[in-house]
């Protein structure tokens, strides 16, 4: 006989159990959806890092080729310093006395001059002497930036980083020289871009030459007239080094344009050795500095011009100053009222400095290509 148990409940899931399961699944789905944009951002960062490293490797090789070409003759022997090298590259003089170049610029002359004195200098100058025991001035070899200022009629910015923004006394000697490569000073714009950017950032014609846009005279690598990634060099001779050996720093830029003059900025700044805090005297201006960007200590301490790059990790703005937190302590001290200056290479309209690579020595006596 079948027995009925009215109090026995049918096996199954209660509503509460279903709701708990749905809640747990929702959390998992939300976590999964969050991973997609995060993964996309990580992928974009990985692509940027890869392109920057690839740009730096290409820049290193082209810099080594350029450096050997100005120093070596056709038979591989080194030219004399500086007369023979000065014929191949006028920028060689800026290593030892860029301020005398500024005198010729004020006379409307070329940055190149006959060793040891610039022609038609307004005042007699002492011969420029190569001191093998001293650190040279840094020289910014910037083919794209030099040409952008040249074509825009901005000769001051062409020859000096940030123009002459810190020229007021007592800071008349805080300029950092910008130079191009002789063969590219008057070269067609596509060749200028080609010399300082990745080839896959440029559109080419069927004959292999870069496309020259007839409307604005530029090769269309990046939208509007620049390349997505491009580079420039900071060169300087180190103490106790022969003149054909320099230290190479590669600066990689993003979205830089050759049809629009770059707008670097220079601000009086106070750096303290061993401290990561830097104070920029802005006097109400707003520098184009950003977190994870770069600033360069361009202070002149005695006869030594600094050219040290630091990544920015934090910014605090006041009415007249910017308090910058660096990701590493400053290596030297300088004062904004006397000799301290910080250079910013970012621009609202014309690209950003996105990575800096210290690549070590360039030695013109070594044949073959460097292995980055």
What is the topology?
Elements: H1 15-71, H2 83-88, H3 98-106, E1 139-141, H4 143-151, H5 155-159, E2 178-179, H6 189-195, E3 226-236, E4 245-257, E5 265-270, E6 277-281, E7 294-297, E8 300-301, E9 304-305, E10 308-317, E11 321-326, E12 341-344, E13 352-363
Parallel strand pairs: 1-2
Antiparallel strand pairs: 1-3, 3-4, 4-13, 5-6, 5-12, 6-11, 7-10, 7-12, 8-9, 10-11
Which descriptors apply to this entry?
372 residues, alpha+beta, Elongation Factor Tu (Ef-tu), domain 3, six-stranded antiparallel barrel, 13 strands, 25% helix
Q: Would you mind describing this structure in some detail?
A:
The protein has 6 helices and 13 strands. It has 372 residues and is of the alpha+beta class. It has 2 domains: 19-261 and 358-372, no CATH class; 265-344, Elongation Factor Tu (Ef-tu), domain 3 (Beta Barrel). Strands 5-6-11-10-7-12 form a 6-stranded antiparallel beta barrel. Strand 10 and strand 11 (321-326) form a beta hairpin. It is elongated and about 110 Å long. Residues 101-128, 165-173 and 214-226 have low confidence and may be disordered.
Q: Main β-sheet, in a few words? A: 6 strands, antiparallel, barrel
Radius of gyration: 28 Å
Q: What fraction of residues sit in β-strands?
A: 15-25%
Major β-sheet strand ordering = 5-6-11-10-7-12
Oligomer: single chain
Structural class: alpha+beta
Give a short overview.
The chain is of the alpha+beta class and 372 residues long. It has helices at 15-71, 83-88, 98-106, 143-151, 155-159, 189-195, and strands spanning 139-141, 178-179, 226-236, 245-257, 265-270, 277-281, 294-297, 300-301, 304-305, 308-317, 321-326, 341-344, 352-363. The chain has two domains: 19-261 and 358-372, no CATH class; 265-344, Elongation Factor Tu (Ef-tu), domain 3 (Beta Barrel).
């Amino acid at each position: 006989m079948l027995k009925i148990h009215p109090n026995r409940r049918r096996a199954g899931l209660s509503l509460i159990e279903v709701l708990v399961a749905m809640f747990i699944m929702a959390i998992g789905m939300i976590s999964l959806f969050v991973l997609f944009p995060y993964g996309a951002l990580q992928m974009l960062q990985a692509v940027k890092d890869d392109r920057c490293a690839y740009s730096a490797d290409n820049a290193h090789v082209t810099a080594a080729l350029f450096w050997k070409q100005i120093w070596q003759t056709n038979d591989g022997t080194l030219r004399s310093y500086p007369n023979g090298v000065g014929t191949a590259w006028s920028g060689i003089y800026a290593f030892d006395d860029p301020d005398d170049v500024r005198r010729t610029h004020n006379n409307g002359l070329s940055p190149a001059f006959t060793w040891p004195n610039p022609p038609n200098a307004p005042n007699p100058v002492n011969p420029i002497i190569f001191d093998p025991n001293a650190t040279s001035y840094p020289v910014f070899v910037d083919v794209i930036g030099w040409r952008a200022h040249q074509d825009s009629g901005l000769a001051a910015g062409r020859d000096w980083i940030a123009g002459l923004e810190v020229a007021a006394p007592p800071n008349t000697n805080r300029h950092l020289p910008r130079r191009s490569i002789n063969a590219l000073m008057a070269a067609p714009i596509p060749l200028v871009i080609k010399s300082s950017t990745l080839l896959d950032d440029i559109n080419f014609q069927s004959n292999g030459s870069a496309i020259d846009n007839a409307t604005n005279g530029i090769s269309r690598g990046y939208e509007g007239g620049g390349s997505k990634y491009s580079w420039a060099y900071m060169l300087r001779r180190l103490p106790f080094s022969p003149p054909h050996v320099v230290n190479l720093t590669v600066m990689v830029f993003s979205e830089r344009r050759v049809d629009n003059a770059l707008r670097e900025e220079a601000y009086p700044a106070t750096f303290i050795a061993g401290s990561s805090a830097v104070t920029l005297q802005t006097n109400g201006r707003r520098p184009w500095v950003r977190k994870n960007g770069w600033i360069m200590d361009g202070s002149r301490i005695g006869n030594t011009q600094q050219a040290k790059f630091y990544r920015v990790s934090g910014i605090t703005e006041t009415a007249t100053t910017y308090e910058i937190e660096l990701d590493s302590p400053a290596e030297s001290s300088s004062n904004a009222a006397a000799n301290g200056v910080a250079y910013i290479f970012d621009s609202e309209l014309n690209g950003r400095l996105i990575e800096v690579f210290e690549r070590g020595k360039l030695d013109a006596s070594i044949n073959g290509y460097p292995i980055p």
